[in-house]
């Protein structure tokens, strides 16, 4: 099995133009927005729109001179029809800037809405990598969950019911001009959402740190967003893994611990910075069809899959998983690199358990008769499978799913 390495010593990041992080920093939004004009479209969901914190934020922004129009009908999993509806009812002449305040679906919605409002066209025409023809309206992202990292990324995942699957839109033109990351906004997250987003963040960190290194040339860097694991993505992944080591146990013990919320949100942002050029891999490819079948949250799905995907990938990533053990403080004394790598994997599993992530795929509602369908659909996500450090064919996908159904955490031979 070939272990890919970053022989070029390449470092590459794509990131928002301005990043503001810290408790209470949402109050800076009123001062920031006039730089892009006086009319803002705020995208959010019904839960957030009814929150007093949201109403207070809108009042601050309007008092500072920016007129706010709220679109509050964003749904989970981002149905294509919702994007088409907002494009039909509004146009670029009404707004100077788009502001996304919410979780991953809200942030992804606003990225695409900003493009459609400015340029028109059909959502399906944007599917794929580097297909978006040009810039949308300026976008400011304000995440309210600590997990997806979508505030930092230039990809949106849309559910297309005509295709019966989620489809990615990936382009540098989706990148935010600014992001405001305020951990106080996560204090109202219900327990299930906290678990799902934290598991998503941890999966992003592991998949980015262990992703395939592609050693791209100049033309490939220009043509592709996901150019593989590199020096700078590793830097962000390492930071995130160090943060979750202590943050997850503290968060599980006390969901009102603002310090734990802050560290978790910084880890999630770190993960978003890493996956924006390293990409995600097999856990994400397998989760998408599982989520469509079981209607379970994305973060819960990738978290439940991660232990089995890590075991599959171990032969090609012993060095990286051994470093994960070091970052998480679990390196066994006097052991081999293989022993350290296994300890790293086990430590990730322990963190998933700490935040309440289900231990197997049966807990998601997946059944044995679903395995073939999930394997077939997962392999269609070539953008994700191409990032996996170990080659993944249909037989491998079936074996991962079968082990995940059985909760079999023995080591692959």
Can you tell me about this structure?
The chain has 16 helices and nine strands. With 413 residues, the protein is an alpha/beta fold. The chain folds into two domains: 25-181, 3-Layer(aba) Sandwich (Rossmann fold), CATH 3.40.50.1970; 191-406, Dehydroquinate synthase-like, alpha domain (Up-down Bundle), CATH 1.20.1090. A six-stranded parallel β-sheet has the order 1-9-6-4-2-3, sandwiched between helices. A hairpin with a 4-residue loop joins strand 7 (155-160) and strand 8. Helix 10 crosses helix 14. The longest helix has 23 residues, at 231-253. The chain is globular and about 65 Å long. The relative contact order is 0.12. The model has no long low-confidence stretch (mean pLDDT 95).
Observed structural traits:
alpha/beta, 413 residues, Dehydroquinate synthase-like, alpha domain, globular, Rossmann fold, three-stranded mixed beta sheet, 48% helix
